[in-house]
Amino acid sequence: MPRVIQTRGINSAVDAGASAAFIASFRMYEQNDLFAEIGTIERTQKGEARIPFLWYPPRMREWVGERLIGSLDGGMHIIPTRTYEATVAVPRTAVEDDQYGAIERAARGLASEFFRFLHQSYIDILKNGQTLNTFDGLPLLTTNPVARGANNVNLVSAQQLSIENLTAGIQAMGLYTEPDGRPLGMRPTHLLVGPANEFTAKNLVQSQQLIMSGGTNRVMGESNPWAGSLTVLVSSYITGGDWYLIAAGANEYRPAIMVERSDVPVEFVAHTSPDHESVFRRDSYEYGTRARVGFGAGAWYAVYASQT
Fold first, then answer.
1. Which residues, in sequence order, are bridge partners of residue 212?
2. Is the pLDDT confidence value at 213 over 60?
3. pTM for this one?
4. Is 39 or 56 the better-scoring residue by pLDDT?
């Protein structure tokens, strides 16, 4: 669902042009929002999201006697929202000299920065997954087989991205279980990597035949069993050889959660009135954006990670 954008302080055609540039750029970047594709977005009208979860859905069973009711009291995940902003100053002389393009570029840059911030926040949740607790009180990522059970280890240490390790990760996710041992049936949908692993990732899940070695004179291997099975996403915020399998299919909850204030739209603000402090004291126009959002760890069973 597209986010609501509220504009303030639009006093001139120049401001209107800057606002239009911000909104157009915002809608363009919104189409590639990482949280919309492989995250969970919760909306609230309070300072924090208190999310009661049936993380593990109630089972279907033969109706004998009274219903067996799954309770929402099984977990409460609390994620606070915080206020974030970005502001840019444009010399007043730029308007006087008809340099409207500079102002519109600055407005587009604010929209770009908003989604770069969201993207980086998603990756930061994964990077810090060993210390961020999720709904069951345990870290999002763990190597400890005692924590959730032997089948529910979702973090390995520095495993190079290869056909063997990719296969092991997919198999591991398929063996994830509920606390009572019932299989969750998880299947990854995305392979998330950094630039260092982009070629390898696309070779592993997009090529019909595996490329075993070579540059211009490539040595082709066997047919690729994972061709077309995963979508490759590349993030510049993943440095080194870390890689992640993400399940973002029918499961409601993904490994990272963003909380948005449904009653507080994303703001685009123009401060260009002659009596505004920035104009009077610094002879500059200011344009900015503001949003109230929060971030937290999500479903451990929707991720398998290899980290250095």
1. none
2. no
3. 0.88
4. 39
